[in-house]
Amino acid sequence: MNSRLINWFKFSSPASFYPLAGKMVPVFTLIAVMLIGVGLYMSFFVAPTDYKQGEGYRIIFVHVPAAWLSMFIYLVMAFWAALGLVFNTRLSGMMASSLAPTGAMFTFIALWTGAFWGKPMWGTWWVWDARLTSELILLFLYLGFIALQGAIDDSRRSDRAGALLILVGVVNIPIIHYSVKWWNTLHQGASVSVTQGSSMSSIMLWTMLIMALGFWAYAIAVALSRVRSIILERERDTTWVSELAEVRR
Amino acid sequence: MKARHKRLGFVLAGLVGLGLATWLVMNALENNLSYFFSPTEVAGNKAPKDHVFRLGGLVQPGSLQRGQELTIRFTVTDNAHNVNVAYTGILPDLFQEGQGVIAQGRMGADGVFVADEVLAKHDENYMPPEVADALQKSHNAATGAN
């Protein structure tokens, strides 16, 4: 096993990940700005009016990508949480903490835009059906994780406690995803599925995918720049931090 | 067996256990997690008779009657059974014949479901009007309707 192409363990050290993250942030910021710009233009000016919902349907170009990201970011956090518990790497916990606020934001956006769409289309802002309720629980999981980490001063212990919470909550993700299949819900079924293709016209689908990729790049850029702050905060007493150009200045 | 293998085992076993527990809870709750009852379930006496429940299905085309004093009557169907509904109030934008609907209320003695709230259920189809027209035309051609 000496002939590994990339030594992944090298980047589990905050000292070597910090500059790498610094190089990746501008790249993903650029990707995010471009994709979200194109996506918003397509959302408003290119995508056609829906045959039944009129113009109001355009909110899905924000709603669906935000909902996807809210679940995807949680899975990535669960991955880091498990990695941190198993390998005891410091960086894993920092990655999980850096993703949480972005995940919570996307969950909130999904719920908020959903309510805005629901009022004119369904006739109600909110109902307690399985899809909406499980997405609300996801928001509480994010907020609970942030609060739990904030409540424990020792960073290694707060990482472990947070990782446990994240891993326990991961059962919620398949529930959110399959809720519209398993039970009768007011929320409609999935318009896009890996196995069955899409029930949207292709230009609408493309707009949504571009927005989703833009949100994804945004999430990476924000999480990486946040993890850089966390690294500096937690490693502030080390030599390598005191030797950084931006710290000495 | 290194310490990290042991920890990996703990994490995996924990996840499997949690998944199993969740699956059992979901199975036990099954119908209670459904947001509405279908007309077939109502016909099979699965819906509560003495208190409020939600009824979901499609508005049967041709069944909508706007009666006197703002009361609207329509039939909810799942293409197997029908339930007649009476509702007094404002309907949401997407309410149409042939469209999904969820009504909350209780069964009257005469077998008419008296709703106090009606929500439109949207389906997962999104398309421009021209595509919808074309689909409708080809559907009509296939079924031999006008």
Summarize the SSE layout with pairings.
The complex is a heterodimer of chains A (249) and B (146).
Chain A: H1 14-46, H2 60-87, H3 90-121, H4 130-151, H5 155-169, H6 172-182, E1 192-193, E2 197-198, H7 202-234, H8 239-242, H9 245-248
Antiparallel strand pairs in A: 1-2
Helix pairs in contact in A: 1-7, 2-3, 2-5, 2-7, 3-4, 3-5, 3-7, 4-5, 4-6
Chain B: H1 3-29, H2 39-43, E1 53-59, E2 65-66, E3 71-77, E4 82-88, E5 100-107, E6 113-121, H3 129-143
Parallel strand pairs in B: 4-6
Antiparallel strand pairs in B: 1-3, 1-5, 2-3, 3-4, 5-6
How many runs of DSSP E, i.e. beta strands of chain B?
6
Pair with the biggest interface? A-B, 40 and 43 residues
Number of helical elements of chain B: 3
Order of helix and strand elements from N to C terminus of chain A: HHHHHHEEHHH
Class by SSE composition of chain A: mainly alpha
For CATH, the homologous superfamily of the largest domain in chain B is named as: Nucleic acid-binding proteins
CATH third-level topology of the largest domain in chain B: OB fold (Dihydrolipoamide Acetyltransferase, E2P)
Helix percentage of chain B: 25-40%
Tally of strands of chain A: 2
Largest sheet of chain A: 2 strands, antiparallel
Structural category of chain B is: alpha+beta
Principal-axis shape of chain A equals globular
- Into how many domains do the coordinates of chain A divide? 1
Catalogue the unreliable spans of chain A.
Answer: none
Query: Number of DSSP helices of chain A?
Result: 9
Q: N- to C-terminal separation of chain B? A: 74 Å
Biggest β-sheet of chain B, characterized?
Answer: 5 strands, mixed, barrel
Quickly give the CATH architecture of the largest domain in chain B.
Answer: Beta Barrel
Average pLDDT of chain A: 89
